[in-house]
User: Which sequence fits this backbone?
């Protein structure tokens, strides 16, 4: 028998089995996790509910015939299921997430704490207004911040996300045109080729037609193309322009663009997705904007949650303010009032976009964030975001190909011109995963070949940026010399590259019970 | 500034690396007249965590919560218990602070939960497929209407008189913007089956709701048959997802598209949002669907994994030809929904539904026993409409004075509906016998 070793320090022996397989399918801290349908039980439950009394139903026989058959899990199993799955996700709280145009900044935990206060979380949208004065005050206070920061006179609070805010702005423009008697005559919306896909999709949803304008060699709106469009058409409804634009650049001619559109009888919709670059430093209202949505989940730090919920309040100019949708909050000597219906009130509201009053949970988080930063802090937010992006651009400009000359705003854009034949943007992105980073935005904007859009945000330290730039510079060097190993990346993620073509060809969109013969064959 | 890691030394060193004098250089493209010299006026400067928390707590304290007393407010959002573990799971950083899963190798957590969510929603609605969520029930309803028009190449939709008025408004808005004719039937407590009389060969879809806004449950099968006879679609709506544990689900009634609000499962009331829209349809219509879809595939080593799929429907690929402009959906609320459903299981959901129904039956018994109260909803799940001889707004205000939040007046949702004395009251598993007794006692006093 060997020496008693309990409690004694141990030292590792030589270990060579780096690609070992395991019986369990887990790999150390990376736990294998099946679908709940594969290990849950129909009679299992993670909640203890009282037994129903068994009284006579008043459903009138409108009863479910077939049970859902859905399995349940006990609480420990359920908690473990989601913890294991969570460990297969990358997140801002784990590391740098430079996804361009998405503004993945730190999500303060104080925001979460405030949103969970019972006075916000446990309040019904249709309670008598006397009982929700604090909630209405939050909406009013946040609206004041948004109007002041943008220099705009009005804001519609109910849009549920950025694209929904776009819809709000474009419906306000549609309504204004109808009020002018030009609803049918003006259908053309100009959209730059570099725009987010939501812009043209939104214009179509509002019944407009989309006319694309070119980008010039500087990555801005091609003024020659714009002017010729305006000279040859007489049905302009407006323009949808992102500023700073999706190339990470400020539209130098923005005031001239606004003036030209207004002179042509149209309205200026500004996509506010990139407001983080200018918040506290530039007010869109000073640029001739008529409508702009603000992604609270970008600029104002509400969490992205793996794809929402977002929130897209939309600021409106004097020309559009009267068309804002219901509901809205007004204040008088009796307190705050929620106006839900405008019959007989002289309002030209274009309608109601959504049930209830908007994303209150996001309003609370965004207001908490604004109060934390203050007007001074928000200015610093924009400046640090822009400084960080320019730093990344400066550190990488010699090993990668900047898409355009000069300084950028809050994101640095590169093309794939520096890569050797056969190496693509996706290979660089996937190699970043092996280095422990979330990839940048790939292949967007469309106006730059093999685009790589890097948005660091203000919540990254210089040390983190340096580590990232070191890693990306090395990958870029490998891409330049045609290192074929990049094609297989990622090697160190929970999964290898996934077959998206197969997923789309014959979509499997839910779990189904395997056929008995398939089980037997296993 | 606690959220900003850069120090003054960092900033100076970075500017030197860049070769810029100050950050002002980066803003040189901003037109001269739009450059601000200092900070924006009229707003406070930064504050510490304690001060901000106090400010928000002061605002929160001005609201009456659904747990402060007997509570019967429903009509599209419902007070249910959310297990502690659900809120813990959605606060897990890896779910909370990640993005739409564009990089599937490092997003299998989000993707697998979406696949489970889609499977659960499809089973609950008894439909073939479900998407990865919409903003909420009302926008899901509007998207269903325009999807039906796309699928049928027709431009007319018919809304029942029991469809939640906010859902009807959101649907009307989107349809009218696209030149789609919207026919709204007159408000009716038990009129869902009237849809069958309003479908012709130009109709894209009819939209009915069960339980409807007045709480009435209806088997929409005759409406489905009438719609299908004209090659039109049935869109079946619900605002109370817990009802799916007990009430005939859309798929069993022949619905082509099922949409609804998922807030009741896993999500708090939060004054109306964020919520989670549920969207399901038949296999035939899947490529017409709006929103994200998660699908199963394999990785380069043949290991099962999940990806976002059929994105050629979506705005970031198809731009002006997309099925919808939706981008961000309601991911974290969908996670709360699926985590709560996983704790419940099918059996738990049925039991929860029964508890809700019994609470509403007890409430109905108690209110019906009061002279002057007339119950208007013939068949109900967990809410119903009733009428008194007194204006509903006044009744609710007097109930509020007695510490009871007694429901929603129909006149708030339908100002011109001619139902000024009608109140919609809901009960859930949170409703106690004491709550019901308090409601009955207070109502007796005020009418």
Assistant:
């Amino acid at each position: 028998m060997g020496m008693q070793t309990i409690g004694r320090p141990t030292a590792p022996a030589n270990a060579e089995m780096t690609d070992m397989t395991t019986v369990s399918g887990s790999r150390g801290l990376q736990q294998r996790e099946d679908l709940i349908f594969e290990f849950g039980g129909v009679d299992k439950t993670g909640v203890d509910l009282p037994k129903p009394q068994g009284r006579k139903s008043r459903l009138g026989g409108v009863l479910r015939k077939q049970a859902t058959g859905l399995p349940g899990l006990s609480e420990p199993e359920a908690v473990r299921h989601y913890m294991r799955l969570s460990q297969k996700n990358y997140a801002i709280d784990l590391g740098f997430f430079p996804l361009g145009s998405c503004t993945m900044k730190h999500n303060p935990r104080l925001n979460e704490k405030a949103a969970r206060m019972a006075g916000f979380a446990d309040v019904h949208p249709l309670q008598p207004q006397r009982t929700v004065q604090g909630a209405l005050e939050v909406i009013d206070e946040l609206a004041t911040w948004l109007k002041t920061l943008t220099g705009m006179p009005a804001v519609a609070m109910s849009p549920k996300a950025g694209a929904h805010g776009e819809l709000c702005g474009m419906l306000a423009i549609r309504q204004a045109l109808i009020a002018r008697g030009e609803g049918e005559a003006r259908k053309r919306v100009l959209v730059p080729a570099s725009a987010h896909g939501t812009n043209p999709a939104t214009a179509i949803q509002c019944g407009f037609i989309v006319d694309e304008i070119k980008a010039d060699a500087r990555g801005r709106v091609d003024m020659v193309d714009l002017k010729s469009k305006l000279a040859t058409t007489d049905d302009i409804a407006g323009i949808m322009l992102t500023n700073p634009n999706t190339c990470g650049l400020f539209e130098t001619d923005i005031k001239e663009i606004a003036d030209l559109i207004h002179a042509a009888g149209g309205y200026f919709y500004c996509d506010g997705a990139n407001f983080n670059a200018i918040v506290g430093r530039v007010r869109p209202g000073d640029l001739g904007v008529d409508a702009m949505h603000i992604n609270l989940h970008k600029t104002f730090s509400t969490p992205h949650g793996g794809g929402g919920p977002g929130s897209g309040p939309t600021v409106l100019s004097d020309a559009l303010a009267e068309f804002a949708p219901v509901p809205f909050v007004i204040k008088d000597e009796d307190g705050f009032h929620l106006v839900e219906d405008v019959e007989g009130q002289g309002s030209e509201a274009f309608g109601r976009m959504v049930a209830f009053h908007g994303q209150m949970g996001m309003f609370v988080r965004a207001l908490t964030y604004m109060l934390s930063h203050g007007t001074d802090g928000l200015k610093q937010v924009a400046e640090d975001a822009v400084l960080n992006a320019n730093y990344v651009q400066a550190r990488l400009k010699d090993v990668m190909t900047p898409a355009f000359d000069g300084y950028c705003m809050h994101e640095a854009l590169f093309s794939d011109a520096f890569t050797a034949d056969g190496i693509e943007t996706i290979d660089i992105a996937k190699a970043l995963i092996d280095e422990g980073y979330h990839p940048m935005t790939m292949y967007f904007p469309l106006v730059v070949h093999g685009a790589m859009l890097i948005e660091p945000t203000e919540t990254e330290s210089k040390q983190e940026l340096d580590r990232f730039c070191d890693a990306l510079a090395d990958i870029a060097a490998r891409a330049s010399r045609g290192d074929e190993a990049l094609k297989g990346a990622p090697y160190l993620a929970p999964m290898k590259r996934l077959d998206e073509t197969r997923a789309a060809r014959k979509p499997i969109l839910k779990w189904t019970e395997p056929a008995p013969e398939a089980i037997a064959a296993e | 500034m606690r959220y900003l890691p850069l120090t003054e030394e960092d900033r100076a060193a970075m500017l030197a690396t860049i070769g810029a004098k100050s950050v002002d250089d980066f803003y040189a493209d901003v037109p001269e007249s739009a450059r601000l010299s200092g900070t924006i006026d009229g707003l406070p400067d930064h504050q510490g965590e304690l001060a901000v928390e106090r400010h928000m707590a002061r605002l929160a304290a001005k609201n009456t919560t659904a747990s402060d007393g007997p509570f019967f407010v429903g009509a599209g959002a419902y007070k249910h218990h959310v297990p502690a573990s659900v809120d813990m799971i959605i606060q897990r950083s890896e779910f909370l602070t990640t993005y739409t899963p564009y990089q599937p190798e490092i997003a299998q957590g989000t993707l697998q939960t979406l696949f489970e969510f889609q499977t659960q929603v499809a089973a609950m609605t008894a439909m073939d497929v479900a998407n990865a969520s919409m903003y909420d029930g009302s926008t899901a309803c509007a998207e269903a209407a325009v999807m039906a028009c796309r699928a049928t190449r027709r431009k007319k939709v018919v809304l029942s008189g029991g469809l939640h008025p906010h859902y009807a408004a959101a649907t009307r808005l989107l349809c009218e913007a696209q030149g789609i004719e919207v026919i709204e039937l007159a408000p009716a407590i038990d009129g869902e089956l009237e849809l069958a009389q309003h479908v012709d060969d130009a109709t894209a879809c009819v939209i009915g709701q069960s339980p409807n806004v007045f709480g009435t449950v209806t088997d929409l099968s005759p409406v489905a048959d009438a719609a299908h006879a004209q090659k039109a679609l049935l869109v079946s709506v619900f605002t109370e997802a817990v009802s799916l544990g007990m009430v005939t689900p859309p798929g069993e009634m022949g619905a082509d598209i099922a949409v609804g609000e998922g807030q009741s499962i896993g999500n708090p009331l939060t004054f109306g949002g964020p919520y989670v829209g549920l969207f399901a349809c038949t296999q035939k219509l899947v490529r017409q669907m709006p929103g994200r879809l998660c699908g199963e595939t394999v990785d380069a080593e043949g290991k099962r994994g999940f990806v976002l799929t059929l994105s050629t429907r979506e705005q970031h690929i198809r731009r002006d030809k997309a099925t919808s402009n939706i981008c961000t959906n309601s991911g974290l609320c969908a996670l709360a929904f699926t985590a709560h459903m996983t704790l419940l299981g099918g059996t738990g959901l049925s039991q929860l539904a029964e508890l809700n129904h019994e609470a509403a039956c007890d409430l109905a018994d108690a209110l019906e026993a009061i002279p002057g109260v007339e119950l208007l909803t013939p068949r109900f799940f967990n809410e119903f409409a009733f009428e008194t001889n007194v204006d509903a707004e006044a009744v609710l205000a007097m109930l509020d004075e007695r510490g009871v939040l007694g429901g929603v007046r129909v006149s708030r949702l339908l100002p011109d509906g001619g139902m000024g004395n009608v109140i919609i009251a809901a009960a859930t598993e949170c409703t106690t016998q004491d709550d019901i007794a308090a409601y009955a006692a207070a109502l007796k006093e005020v009418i």
